[in-house]
Amino acid sequence: MELNAQSVEAIVRRVVAQMDSTAQTAGTIPIGISNRHIHLSREDLDTLFGKGYELTPLKDLSQPGQYACKEQCTLVGPSMRAIEGVRILGPLRRQSQVEISVTDSFTLKVKPPVRESGSLEGSAPITIIGPKGIVTLREGCIIANRHIHMTPADAATFGVKDGDYIDVDAFSGSKKTRWFDVQIRVSDKFHLEMHVDTDDANAAGLKNGSVVTVVKP
Amino acid sequence: MELNAQSVEAIVRRVVAQMDSTAQTAGTIPIGISNRHIHLSREDLDTLFGKGYELTPLKDLSQPGQYACKEQCTLVGPSMRAIEGVRILGPLRRQSQVEISVTDSFTLKVKPPVRESGSLEGSAPITIIGPKGIVTLREGCIIANRHIHMTPADAATFGVKDGDYIDVDAFSGSKKTRWFDVQIRVSDKFHLEMHVDTDDANAAGLKNGSVVTVVKP
User: Fold this and answer.
1) How far is CA B30 from CA B60, B147, B150, B200, B214, in A?
2) Exposed/middle/buried for A85, CB within 10 Å: 0-12, 13-18, 19+?
3) Distance of CA B135 to the CA centre of its chain
4) Whole-angstrom Cα distance, residue B9 to residue B6?
5) What is the pLDDT of residues B71-130, one digit of tens each?
C-alpha cells in the first residue's frame, strides 16, 4: 500500500472509527452542543459579505468537512430585537439555513418548526444582517431536531439504520432527562456524536463531552 | 353553617381541590414555567429600594399567597454582563433567593447548584442591582429543581407523599422528553402544578398550560 496523503487519511479514519466502536461497546454516545448558527448559500454570502467573498475557516467541527468560520452575522425578527455574533458554518450549501433554539425564537419572535437539517420547506422566515448587505429568507429558519451522527459500523453495533428514531438517556448532567425520537443519521463521513441545541443541553445540565446512553426497546 | 368570608374561602378551596382531583383522574398535571426571578428579605428590599419600601403586587401566581410584583431588578455576575428586568416575587422571605436558568448562568458566569427553593446553604453568590442600592448575596443563587406542587388530596390520588421523587413524561410539546427525579411538594395551601424553568420548557417545546403525565413505576 502506497502511503500518500489520501491513504493516510483513510487509515486515520479507520482507526478513529475503531475508537468510536469501542465507545459504542461501552454503550455511550458523546454529546455535541450546537449553538445557534448559520449555513449560507453562495448567493446569500455574496449579498452579506460582498460578491465573490470567501469564508475564513476558524476551527474544524467534529463532523468531517464541516468547519466554523471567522465570519459572524446578526439575526433579527419581528420583535425588532437582534441576536448578534451568530457564527457562520462552512462549507456553503445549496440553500441558506438558520438554526436557533426555542429560547432564541422568543427573543426574535419567530416560530421555527423542529426539523432535520436541510428540510426547509415551509420553515420560518428570518433576516440575516451582514457587513455588506441584508438577506431576508422567505424560509430557512429551523430548530434542529435531536439527532445522532454515526458511521455504518456504529449503526451495525447499535442495531439501527439511517432514518431510525431511538430514545436516549441523558443522565450525566445535573437534571436526569430522557430524549425520545432521536433521529439516526448514518454516513461513512460521519463521526459518532449526538447533536442537541443549547436548550436541551442546558435543561439537562450537559456540557460538550457529556455522554448519553441508548434506551433499550 | 354561617357564610362569612372565611367559610366561603374554605368552600371555594374545597371546590377547587375537587376540580384538581378531576384533572388528576385524567392523569395529567399542568405546567407552570418559572422565568428567572428574585425573592427578597426585608433587609435586602430596604437596601435595593429604600428603607421601609413596600412591594407593589402586580399579579397573583398560581400558588395561593404568591404574587409577582411591579418591581424589577438587574442581575450581574463575574462576566460583568447584566440581565435586566428580573421580576421580584412576593411575599418577602427570611433570606433572599435568586432563581435563574443554566442559560442565564452562562450569561452571568455564575455556577448555581440545582436546588429546591429555600435550600440555599453553599449556593452561588450573585449581585442584585436596585434603584436605591446594590446587594451582593454571599449565597442565594440557585437553579430551581423540577418539582410538583399538590394538595394532600392530590397526593393521595397519585399515591405519593411530600418529599417523594417521581418521573414525568412531557409529551405535549414539540420534542418528547421525560424528566426524572421530580420532587413532590405537598401542602393544603398548594395548587396542582409542575414547575419547570425556561430551559426545561423550551427544550421540550412546552408552554404554560401544557401538561405532563406521571410515569408509572
Assistant:
1) 17, 12, 11, 14, 11
2) exposed
3) 22
4) 5
5) 999 999 999 999 999 999 999 999 999 999 999 999 999 999 999 999 999 999 999 999
Q: Is the dihedral of CA A44, A48, A50, A55 positive or negative?
A: negative
B202 lies within 8 A of chain A by CB: yes
What values do phi and psi take at A22, rounded to 5?
Answer: -60, -45
The CA distances from residue B195 to A132, B37, B142, B162, in Å, are: 45, 13, 14, 15
Cα(B20)–Cα(B68) distance, integer angstroms: 23
What is the C-alpha separation between B161 and B210, in angstroms, rounded? 24
A202: helix, strand or coil:
helix
Task: Please name the residue that has the C-alpha cell 442565594.
Answer: B140
Nearest to A177 among B114, B179, B197 (CB): B179
Element (H, E) at B105: helix B102-108
- Judge whether B204 and B193 are in contact, CB under 8 Å: no
Decide if B80 contacts B166 (C-beta within 8 A).
Answer: no
Grid coordinates of A142: 429551523
Q: Do A202 and B204 touch (CB under 8 A)?
A: no
For chain A, the average pLDDT equals 92
State the nearest Cα–Cα gap between B164 and chain A, in angstroms: 16
CA–CA dist A110, A102 (Å, integer): 9
Q: Supply B20's cell numbers.
A: 384538581
Side-chain half-sphere CA neighbours of B4 within 13 A? 2
Shortest distance, CA A144 to any CA of chain B (angstroms):
11
Average pLDDT over all residues of chain B: 92
Q: Which residue reads 449556593 in cell numbers?
A: B123
Report CB contact under 8 Å: A175, B174: no
Backbone angles phi, psi at A107, to 5 degrees: -60, -45
A139 phi/psi in degrees, rounded to 5:
-150, 160
For residue B73, the cross-strand partners are B86
Cis omega (within 30 of 0) for bond into A78? no
